[in-house]
Write a structure and sequence with these properties.
Layout: H1 4-14, H2 21-34, H3 47-54, H4 58-71, E1 74-77, E2 81-84, H5 90-93, H6 114-122, H7 145-156, H8 173-186, E3 196-199, H9 202-213, E4 219-224, H10 228-236, E5 240-247, E6 250-251, E7 264-267, H11 281-294, E8 297-301, E9 326-331, E10 343-346, H12 352-363, H13 368-379, H14 382-408, E11 424-429, H15 435-444, E12 450-451, E13 463-468, H16 474-490
Parallel strand pairs: 4-5, 4-7, 7-8, 8-9
Antiparallel strand pairs: 1-2, 3-10, 5-6, 9-10, 11-13, 12-13
Helix pairs in contact: 1-2, 1-15, 2-4, 3-4, 7-13, 8-13, 9-10, 14-16
Family: In the C-terminal section; belongs to the class-I pyridoxal-phosphate-dependent aminotransferase family.
InterPro entries: Aminotransferase_I/II_large, HTH_trans_reg/aminotransferase, PyrdxlP-dep_Trfase, PyrdxlP-dep_Trfase_major, Tscrpt_reg_HTH_GntR, WH-like_DNA-bd_sf, WH_DNA-bd_sf
Domain HTH gntR-type: 19-87
Length: 503
């Protein structure tokens, strides 16, 4: 069984790029000691053991230990091994910024708040946001940039004065109106313009919700496994997050009497992230009834509902009942491109005025010109046409990846909850394996996948890999898949030759 120190270092090594491996290992150890993730006095694994767990040479770990011992971070005693110093060097904790390019210039040179340090310990944002098999990233090359630029030029030629100042009404009225029309038809969402609040994306929406509806310590039900980004936003706002398990029908509501009633219930009912389950109608009605009974707000993150490749469209939870206690979140990051940074909330009418005022007070808002261009893009039919085209493209890519998995690994490697939708699929691995280590090995060879275990709050989590297929052309998919398969072969998780029954 791998040590907790190796778990920590493997995760942090995935977030650092460039430079020699021995320097990166040294940096990750140093920052982990400085931010308290490895506390003073902690005994570290033997160099041989840590090297084996990280999948690096022993010399790499020896260099890091010797360097940190010279700097005063580590102490070694014969017969007692290597441990973290009880008092860390003041020169590191209070140092001024080094010279440009200095190897000792780190973010951790500044003193973070307790919640800031806690966030750094849970941070999972990856520097790798393109290529095989990055999950959740659309093919930004396919967006009609020339067409959208022409619309922007037309609007920018003679902009209205209210398009050039701060936002106070929750964003561009034109985009709000376009969203009302679009959501009513495609998602059965019941709303009017006053209920639409334009945001910078789902993270900003979650931050606003947490600040306005939760006091520190308030209970929040969160899907287990679930999206770590939204969970971290809630965590830094002081929410008491209770992981609630997911089955083939979606989140399983807890029976009454099990702790405090939740203030918020976070769900992805149309395509559970990351497992892919679709919340059944009886489960949706049960969740709505429970929220009304307990005075809870349901946060419905409808992040990629546009991309279903089989079956009928699934209506939003928000539109199932009049005046449902649901805050609906949507985004253009998956349908257009992430750097656009435009998302939206559909707020229950009683919440809308306060939430819009709070958004103006905290974030000021703006980007009216690009929001107005997007509204025009939607009203001229370009948005729906783009989604239809991308649905066909992503469907082909997904089918090809599924065929590779089925042929070379076997159908048992596909997750049972998969519903032929979204921008990623889950590759199932045995529970006893190390998906973090496999992902790290693949990344070193240029293939980026996410370990399923990192989406769980509980350590007794299932193992697997998230494979994004949307931004990978079919011609590039087989070579990348072969790299990943080779990593699985070396980990002893699949045979070197495909099963003839699958061919």
């Amino acid at each position: 069984m791998r040590s907790l120190h190796a778990d920590l270092l493997l995760q942090r090594l995935q977030q650092t790029t460039g430079g020699q491996l021995r320097l990166r290992v040294c940096q990750c150890l140093r920052t982990a000691m400085a931010d308290g993730s490895i506390p003073p006095g902690s005994r570290l694994p033997a160099t041989r053991d840590l090297a084996r767990e990280l999948g690096v040479s022993r010399n790499t770990v020896l260099y890091a230990y010797e360097q940190l011992q010279a700097e005063g971070y580590l102490q070694a005693k014969t017969g007692s091994g290597t441990s973290v110093a009880e008092i860390l060097p003041d020169s590191y904790l209070t140092a001024t910024a080094g010279q440009p390019g200095s190897p000792h210039r780190y973010v951790d040179e500044v003193a973070l708040s307790r919640r800031g340090s806690k966030l750094m310990g849970y941070a999972n944002a990856s520097p790798h946001q393109w290529g095989a098999f990055v999950p959740g990233v659309p093919d930004v090359r396919e967006f009609p940039h020339a067409l959208f630029s022409a619309i922007q030029r037309r609007i920018n030629r003679d902009p209205l004065h209210h398009h050039l100042t701060y936002s106070h009404q929750g964003g561009s009225y034109d985009l709000q109106q376009a969203l009302v029309e679009y959501l009513r038809v495609t998602r059965s969402v019941q709303c009017d313009v006053d209920q639409i609040l334009i945001t910078e994306g789902t993270h900003q929406a979650m931050d606003l919700i947490a600040k306005m509806l939760c006091d520190p310590g308030d209970r929040v039900w969160f899907e287990e496994p679930g999206y770590w980004g939204a969970r971290n936003v809630l965590r830094i706002n002081g929410a008491d997050i209770l992981p609630v398990r997911v089955d083939q029908h979606g989140l399983v509501p807890l029976a009454g009497g099990k702790g405090a009633s939740p203030k918020l219930i976070f769900v992805t009912p149309s395509h559970q992230y990351p497992l892919g389950a679709v919340m059944s109608l009886p489960r949706r009605k049960q969740l709505l009834a429970l929220a009304r009974e307990q005075g809870s707000w349901i946060i419905e993150d409808d992040y990629d509902s546009e991309f279903r490749f089989a079956g009928n469209p699934i209506p939003a939870l928000q539109g199932l009942e009049p005046d449902a206690p649901v805050i609906y979140l949507g985004t253009f990051s998956k349908t257009l491109y992430p750097a656009l940074r435009i998302g939206y909330m559909v707020l229950p009418k009683p919440l809308a005025p306060a939430m819009k005022l709070a958004c103006a007070e905290l974030f000021r808002g703006g980007h009216f010109l690009i929001q107005t261009a997007l509204a025009q893009f939607m009203r001229e039919g370009h948005y729906n046409a783009h989604i239809r085209r991308m649905r066909l493209l992503y469907g082909r890519r997904r089918a090809y990846l599924v065929s590779l998995i089925t042929r070379y690994l076997g159908p048992e490697f596909l997750h049972e909850y998969d519903h032929d939708a979204g921008l990623h699929l889950v590759l199932v691995l045995p529970n006893g394996c190390d998906d973090v280590k496999i992902a790290s090995h693949a990344l070193r060879r240029g293939v980026s996948v996410r370990p399923l275990s990192q989406y769980f709050m509980h350590r007794q989590s299932r193992r697997g890999l998230l494979l994004g297929f949307a931004c990978v052309e079919e011609s590039a998919m087989l070579p990348a898949f072969n790299v990943l398969r080779d990593c699985l072969i070396k980990a002893g998780l699949c045979p070197a030759e495909p099963n003839s029954a699958n061919v």
